[in-house]
Amino acid sequence: MLASLLIVFREVLEAGLIVGIVLAATQGIARRGAWIAGGIACGVLGASVLATFAGAISQALSGAGQEVFNASILIVAVLMLGWHNIWMASHGRQMAQEMKAMGRAVTAGETSLLAMAVVVAVAVLREGAEVALFLYGIAATSGEGAAALVLGGLLGIGAGALVSYLLYRGLVAIPLKRLFSVMSCLIALLAAGMAGQAAAILAGADLIPAWGYQLWDTSWLLPQDGLVGRALHALVGYADRPMGVQVAAYLAVLILLVGLGRWASRTPGHAPRTTAGALAGRRSS
Amino acid sequence: MPIIPPFLIRAFAGAAVAALPLAAWAADPVVLTLKDHRFTPSEVSVPAGERFRIEVTNQDPTPAEFESSDLRIEKIVVPGGKIGVIAGPLKPGTYKFFDEYHPDTATGSLTATEKKD
Known about the structure:
The complex is a heterodimer of chains A (285) and B (117). With 285 residues, chain A is mostly helical. Chain A has helices at residues 2-25, 32-52, 54-59, 65-102, 110-141, 146-172, 176-204, 227-236, 244-266, 272-284. In chain A, helix 1 packs parallel to helix 6, helix 1 (2-25) packs across helix 7 and helix 4 (65-102) packs parallel to helix 9 (244-266). Chain A is globular. The termini of chain A are far apart.
């Protein structure tokens, strides 16, 4: 039971940490609960479908199907996180003012919520498919002790969710004034980590150049397969033996998101329409 | 804003030195079979400094996840399925691999040795 608890806990934690960050980042946007819950539901549904077709995906693209699929959904998540960060940079101040004035926000940030729902769905999809296959394996053997294994799995889901909730509570305890900058920082790191992972997956399958297979080795200090290493891997893209292209993708996305965020927050006007107008004006001039 | 963790900056500075040269290819793939949640063979050796292929066949009725944090591999093998992954180039040493769904029994190790020429 303990073994299955740990296996499921690890997978749920990786997805849960991302959900925790997304929940904290969307703090104050109206109707975010429905969007995030929808994202989780889509992720769970997608994970079940994915687990069913795992064999077919594996055989696709001359055996590189799993790698291409995982890298693709990671890249989608990176784009969505980037979109959210830029959106927040141009509307964050306005939202903060509204929240202070009215106790809660009335801003309808639905485009941003859609992006974040996609991120949540992708995170749940990736880890959920592994949990689904693991639980399927238990069900298929269905021998003695299967009930204990399933119970362990369920406890693992609960424990993973609890840790994620604690992360969320910790993040939203940050004073509102600083929450936006902290969150945009965390989102940028999360996106950079995902971009790095996508690059490492593709380079691992020889689909893109690796630019050095092991830039450094910090596994003696902080192993990536330990609990802390895994959490940092999911949150900020920590890798104990990264490839060159992984570090390059990481830094490129990080610099791009921070740069675009700075630029977006400097554009005059923070209401959606004025910002759109300002952007259009710049483009046409 | 402290955006880039200092450990990354430090590590990136030494990157060029640590990067391995362009990898050569080992001729034969490492062939592993999973049955009764055990790897056969459970100990294999490969030449150090070369890129090589590992093929895993799952003869069990349940899914497996061929995983190695040492080799940076994580890939699902469905029942009756066969996967191929690429690993290396490795420094001489021993690298562990396992089935994440059955980590108690399905474990093995891969040893990279310097070529004698």
